[in-house]
Amino acid sequence: MFWHATLGSVRTLLGRTAEQERLSALVAGITESGGALVIRGAAGIGKSALAAEAATQARAAGAKVLAVTGSESEQNFPYAGLHQLLHPVRKGIDALPGSQREALRIALCLADGDIPDLYLVGMAALNLLSDTGTPLLLLAEDAHWLDQASADVLAFVARRLDSEPIVLLATVRDGVPSQLDTELPSLHLEPLTDDVASTLLDEVAPTLDPSVRKRLLSEAAGNPLALAELPATIQADSLLKATLPLNTRLERAFGARISTLPADTRMCLLVAALNDRGSLSEMFEAASAALSGAPVGAETLTPAAEAGLIEAALGGAGANVAGANVAGRGSAGQGESGQGSSGQGGAWLAVGGRLAFRHPLMRSAIVQAATAAEHRAAHRALADALQKDPERQVWHLAAAATTADEGIAGVLVEAAERARYRGGVGAAIAGLEEAARLSESGELRADRLLRAADLGVEAGRSDLVERLLAEASREELSFQHRARATWIRSSFDDGLVDDTAGPIELAKLARSVFEDGDLDLAMRILWGAGMRCFWAEPGPEARQHLLDVADSLPLDEHDPRLIAILAYVAPIERGKAVAAGLMELAGQTGGDPEVERFLGSAALQIGAFELAARFSASAAAGLRAQGRLGLLARALAVHACSATRLGNLDVALPAAEEAARLAKETHQIFMYGFALSAQAEIAALRGLYAEAANLIAEAEQVALAAGARPILATVQLARGLSALGEGRHADAFADLHRVFDLTEPSYQLALRCYLIADLTEAAIRCGQEDAARKIIQRLEKDAQQTGSPSLHIGLRYARAALASDDDAEKLFLAALAGDLTGWPLERGRLHLAFGEWLRRHRRAAESRVHLRAARETFDALGLIPWSERARSELRAAGETSPRRTPDAREQLTPHELSIAQLAAEGLTNREIGQRLYLSHRTVSTHLHRIFPKLGITSRADLPAVLRNSPG
């Protein structure tokens, strides 16, 4: 066993000082702060050796090591990897908060219940690990083979380890995609240098012929596993004469050892390689059945151990395979998984009756060396041995099947539904795809492939969806199938990056689907088409097509789906109907957060920002409790936009920050851009112009290529507000005018209606009143069709600001007489404009009343440039205005402000963590940073500081 014999030397010969130092630094600080690192490299490059060294260092620092090893055969079992990782600390699950406790128990098959959202499971796992009370090293070997649900949870946890005494270390093989590798810092291992490789080979095989030694060094190309294993194959195989990829060459090297083993040993190894649990008891039972009942015992494995294919120690270091007592074992996963590194080539010791291959390539070599008939026999035997575990049994039945089998296919579909129910979307897709392969009719095959493709959209896997749709298209598709395929293909990113079907095509498709009897699918298609009207501009013809179809469907006028569709498709023309529907539903949503999210979005479209803020706040609370972070990001973005337009920046600021963070985490690139543009608008209102410029640049980069109009429109608003604040009035007018120009990519039918006051102010200050009046005239016609509060408030401001001296005062007073209770920003704007008008007309005493009101409003809202403008006008009107004292809240980041506000409401650290998807330890760390910024020493002081911040 050459690799084992040389591990000690490898640690000193790897020649990877920088890599070892980086790992050591990460592990050395484990008691104070955490982090994550992915070690990537070719098979056999030394990833496991470095991971083993990290485990040794972690234990020396007093940390506990929890380990999981990904298995290719376990990829179809949701949360299998998480179960292995958390098993040693599972007793702590009972102490978790209720929703998290139940979510984790359901995910780990410890309880039945409604499908838990993956992020709720992630939050539960984070808190479980945080509550262990000891520093932890989480070691994920072969993370590229973890089931998707477990990988997603580990990625979620890894992003939240900065303030935790937890380090996540994962190893990933080159050429195999892994979510961990795409989201976390990585360390790529390069081959050994020539000098180090030469020294290692001399230690492994000191008597090699010089010519063979030279060829082997060349073929190994600095791969430590190749240098350790290939010398043993030289006499038995002409391996070095072949021109093969290194991994293939290694697999052949291992295969050469397999071919010399007894038949019963080879069958044991094949069964073990195809089994997903590595259980010895299962392996012996199945291998015996595959060998027609021949007795199989622990001694059968001795030749494999002597050939260096499997671990020699079972149940503890030093226990010989041949002498191990395997009777009664099978409690796989008991105790600390793997007990860390075996110290033998980075492979893990088999514990609790588990068999471990010394390297994944050895498992692959065993599978490749077997014949198709041997594969089927092994799978059938495993299926027989798993009578009490139908979830696993069905996969072996499927693998053993050589022809279509509707019985097995049906069971696979049921297994896929259970996997989806548990949050395992990837496993559900795999189950449906395998069921399609075994389906006895083309119709069933197409249906299952389309169902898998639909789940692929949910998983964000466009490449997988295209492949599944291509396979489905080989069948004779019914109309319903073709409709579903069209809808699925155009479902990514709200249709922005796919032109397969435009709104008109989707409208026709929705009508046909309804006429074919599927109202639910018709509504889904119509909703998707409506979303395209938000993100892009399809033109009046397309909008009318969608309206005609919506009107033809047998839906109640207060159906939330219909209201939302009408708001997106015709925010002006159907604005009054939407507003009436929203008011009717305002108190009748029944607490369904998804319905409230629809209604919040609809309210935003028609400028009913008070309703939008109310619906989206309620939706966010519900979605947060359910752990549905993808939808939560959308609800928070709507909430941030609505609160910003109302001037409630204390709410908008943390909502926009969290929306951007969660949208990025859930891979919603355009929603991320939308949240960024909202942050830019907030920064511009607060006078943080450099910050606004950075946010604008990033949001615009997201939006320009796809022409995402809502992002571009909000970017132009942020630009215009910044220019106004800096006194660049002509620039401000040019920026804002683009949102009203149909030929511009920033034109957006709904959002343009809510920039009227800003455009008017810029126009007045740069001599563009006539251009502004033309726009206002067009919007006056729109106002006759819609009850949009924002549009009417903006028009009242514009009428007064652009009026002649004879009419202005009357119009200002009429505007101020409107109901502006929930619109402090607009009330302050009117007071400021009216005060300025009065002062210019030498009515200083009257102007001061309005200017004071404006100053007080803007101070309270934290709109510094606006309040300074009011102060300047007051001084010009003959009144000294005290300088504004900086608000304590302005010292905090948006994230810190959110935590401080929740703490001020009396929430505990754990409750805050539940709300914000952070661990309670992270919340505590943030609070200890917040207190000095606010000049306080405890959370008890927070309510007074946040309530009484001077302004």
From TrEMBL:
<feature type="domain" description="HTH luxR-type">
    <location>
        <begin position="885"/>
        <end position="950"/>
    </location>
</feature>
<dbReference type="Pfam" id="PF13191">
    <property type="entry name" value="AAA_16"/>
</dbReference>
<keyword id="KW-0547">Nucleotide-binding</keyword>
<dbReference type="InterPro" id="IPR000792">
    <property type="entry name" value="Tscrpt_reg_LuxR_C"/>
</dbReference>
<keyword id="KW-0067">ATP-binding</keyword>
<dbReference type="Pfam" id="PF00196">
    <property type="entry name" value="GerE"/>
</dbReference>
<protein>
    <submittedName>
        <fullName>LuxR family transcriptional regulator</fullName>
    </submittedName>
</protein>
<dbReference type="InterPro" id="IPR041664">
    <property type="entry name" value="AAA_16"/>
</dbReference>
<dbReference type="InterPro" id="IPR011990">
    <property type="entry name" value="TPR-like_helical_dom_sf"/>
</dbReference>
<dbReference type="InterPro" id="IPR027417">
    <property type="entry name" value="P-loop_NTPase"/>
</dbReference>
<dbReference type="InterPro" id="IPR036388">
    <property type="entry name" value="WH-like_DNA-bd_sf"/>
</dbReference>
<dbReference type="InterPro" id="IPR016032">
    <property type="entry name" value="Sig_transdc_resp-reg_C-effctor"/>
</dbReference>
